[in-house]
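Reply to dn_fold:

You asked what the input looked like. This is it:
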Amino acid sequence: MYIGQAAQRSGTTVKSIRHYESIGLLPAARRQGKYRIYDQHSVDLLMFIKCAQQLGFRLKELQSIFAGHPGPQLPWEQAHQVIARKKQEIGARIAALSQQHSQLVEFENSLEQSRLDCPLTSL
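and this is what came back:
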């Protein structure tokens, strides 16, 4: 299939496909004349990339999964490692945001208490 069909089937854009090829995330398509020809494996890989991006993965992180892996199969062990790191990052962000939320509640309560203790009408 041509690049437009691959983009449509995978839910990406032609521009994205060309970019993924240029950074080595997607293997270069075979050519038929001046046209790029993609197979179902390429579409599956594009769908994987899109799904991973929607889950918060950056392209650099995805590149680390496929680095040095020329075969058609997904390098599962590498993918599991990258996913585990992403889960740790998200857990740390959740903890930091939870702490920030608690501090905001505390700050809000202290402001409310100050207002009750000393009502200033000019503020």
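Helices lie at 3-10, 14-22, 40-54, 59-66, 76-117.
Hope that clears it up.
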